[in-house]
Amino acid sequence: MKILVVGGAGYIGSHMVKLLHQVGHDLVTLDNLSNGYRDAILFGEFVEGDIANRKCLEQLFNKHKFDGVMDFASYIQIGESLEKPEMYYQNNFMNTKILLDMMIKFDVKKFIFSSTAAVYGNPKYTPIDEKHLKQPINPYGKSKWMVEQMLEDYDKAYGLNSICLRYFNAAGADPEGELGERHVPETHLIPLILQAASGRKKNIKIYGLDYDTHDGSCVRDFIHVTDLCDAHLQAFNTLLKTNQSSTLNLGNGNGFSVKEVIDAVKFVTGVDFEVVNEPRREGDAPILVADASLAKEQLDWQPKYDDLETIILHAWRWEVKLNKILAG
Fold it and tell me: Would you give the end-to-end CA distance of the chain in angstroms?
């Protein structure tokens, strides 16, 4: 199949490009490199461009007959979305609409969308299933929920089939060490802790030790980036077979506390580092764990790297490599 990967130079997108190449798909990656890296695209054709640019998209869809599109081009920082909501509604919603409209124009009817657990807002219960109330509390989550609703309407009106995959906490790195996470600024927990272990950060902060959890710190569900990409591949295959749109959670279904992740990093790396206790941050839910049973059932998917220490080990290998690159 010929697949357009939008935002394929970023963290998850670049791992997706590698997997799609490994299983034999023909790839084109479109990325404006605002948050991605050209050297992360290891396979297929690369086009530097933006989905907001209709002319660029038209040329691309004219040149290639795509069988489907995978979209990883969203902005993802919750704090930034609160400070600059216009950025998030423009890029995550309006620019996605431009992409979808171009797909309809060129009769491309298969779309895999990277959504988020942020559409649920503060959870009423956990583990969270897909039926949980959708009540996002920040522009990031709201922009993703808006796209999900648009996709539902586009399916009914235009026959554009989609699978929305709601991520919990993507983590880890390519097991072969070729790719990994390098957000600027970094906001994800595991790479931040690893930066403290490698010396790139002075310490790691725990925001709140008075939550109603087993050790007082927040509990989160971490899913290996390779397992995440495998679910995307299975979603695309499922869409080709069934032509049925759906929305699915992606997580391991296991929760680990911030303190447990810090202890696991110290164990895996063999490095001790300073941990600073800070007051709670506004908007942090005590527990966020996925019920991903529907994805496992519908996609015939099972995470391979669900062990926390394995996730950390792969991310640590990448952090060591990245540290050497940054040091010159």
Answer: 39
Distance CA(229)–CA(234), nearest Å, equals 9
Three-state SS at 144:
helix
- Burial of residue 203 (CB within 10 Å: 0-12, 13-18, 19+) is exposed
Long-range CB contacts (within 8 A, 24+) of 19-28: 19/226, 19/229, 19/230, 19/233, 20/44, 20/233, 23/233, 25/1, 26/1, 26/2, 27/2, 27/3, 28/2, 28/3, 28/4, 28/60, 28/64, 28/66
Band of residue 81 on the pLDDT scale cut at 50, 70, 90: very high
pLDDT at 285 over 90: no
Q: Which residue segments constitute the domains of the chain, with CATH numbers given?
A: 2-171+223-250 (3.40.50.720), 189-220+253-327 (3.90.25.10)
**For the residues 275-283, what does the mean pLDDT come to?**
90
User: Could you give the 3-state DSSP secondary structure of residue 117?
Assistant: helix
For the cut 80, the answer to whether the pLDDT of residue 328 exceeds it is no
Catalytic residue selected from 140, 154, 167, 211: 140
The mean pLDDT of 209-233, rounded to a whole number, is 97
Report pLDDT for 283: 74
Catalytic residue at 37?
Answer: no
Q: What are phi and psi of 40, to 5 degrees?
A: -85, -15
Check the CA dihedral 234-236-237-241 and report its sign: positive
Higher-pLDDT residue of 185, 100: 100
Is 109:159 a contact under the CB 8 Å cutoff?
A: yes
Residue 143 has pLDDT above 90, yes or no: yes
Which pLDDT score, from 0 to 100, does residue 104 have?
A: 98
